Fold this sequence. Notes:
- There is one protein chain.
- Helices cover 43% and strands 14% of the residues.
- Helix 6 links the parallel strand 5 and strand 6.
- The chain is globular and about 45 Å long.
- It starts with a helix and ends with a helix.
- By secondary structure, it is of the alpha/beta class.
Amino acid sequence: MKRKLLISMFLLIILYTYTYAYMTREKEHPLTQVKKLSGKGCIILNYHRIRPGNAIIKYLAKVSGNSELTTYSVFKDDFMKQIAFLQKHQFQFITPKELYDYINQQKKMPPKCAMITFDDIDQSVYRYAYPFLKKQQIPFTIFIITGEVGNPNFNGLTMINWDQIFEMTRSNLVTVGTHTHQLHYIEKDEKPPFLKSENISKFITDSKRAKQVFYDHFGYEPKYFAYPYGYGTPQTDNILLSEKYDLLFTLSPGIVNQHSLPFFIQRVLIDDVSWKAIQNWVHTTS
């Protein structure tokens, strides 16, 4: 009886700790959850956090319903199984440059094509995703918030630092894109500031700053941009295209092909529901 009480108290403490930690994070913009995918082309996977998961943490994720754990985090063992599934079905993993060439030149894509992307980039990507993908020699793309690189407490997250980014790029597997400089937040109306026309000058300033910081560190300008919270506006699209970005990535779920618009590259945010949709799509298109 005493042991059961201690276990219950332990679980409650962990639940409280996780809930408190993520209550400080901003509310994420609601995204359309994908239940079915169709068509031929390339599937672009999107991840945010890769977490080590044990039975207790997985249980807490289910009972808490916390979107940070259920929607924006994938457990390491599940991530590895997902990549292994695509490998088993002989998918070819491509880079944004290859995707751009397919679209720009209207070239037919490989029959089984996938791209792996990560947004925000906290330490979990470096610690748990990068070693696995490096071992498998699988290319992937990271979209960094240039003004938050190295931040030890970005809404409760410890962000990756520049040295770690450079280490990953030296593997020749990693493509780096931008995810704004410091506009990754939502306002009181639960919308990111760049979706409002009155803030367009703020977006222009932020975008230029992101490009400059990127150039200062890499010696070349970024070519790929991913919208925080999943999408932008025609105004923001035009601004980014005028700044010579080749591809703009969204979180509108779907399959990308050679006829896709470069300013509306669809990605699938990976959670339990969307992964089942991907599995079904793979089986129906094989």
